[in-house]
Write a structure and sequence with these properties.
Layout: H1 2-7, E1 9-11, E2 14-16, E3 23-25, E4 35-37, H2 40-84
Antiparallel strand pairs: 1-2, 3-4
Amino acid sequence: MIELEEQEKECSGLTVIGPLKDVRVSSEDSPVRQVQVLSPEDLQLTEQAAYERGKKEAETNLQEQLDLMKAEYVTKKNKELADFC
């Protein structure tokens, strides 16, 4: 009975019974407020997918920066060559 009472807790107007695996709550200023309970496996898959998306985005950004730097370098060298001739 005591254990059950300890498990029942009021949290933002919600009654939670039993242990939670993982809870994610959107921020206060978010237009949609939701609570998700995820298993460790689902959490790992979600985090892995987010990591892959972030990694791909970072690689794309770095490639764009490299391409821009190459173009600027070629332009600078062409101008120097034109000024020399």
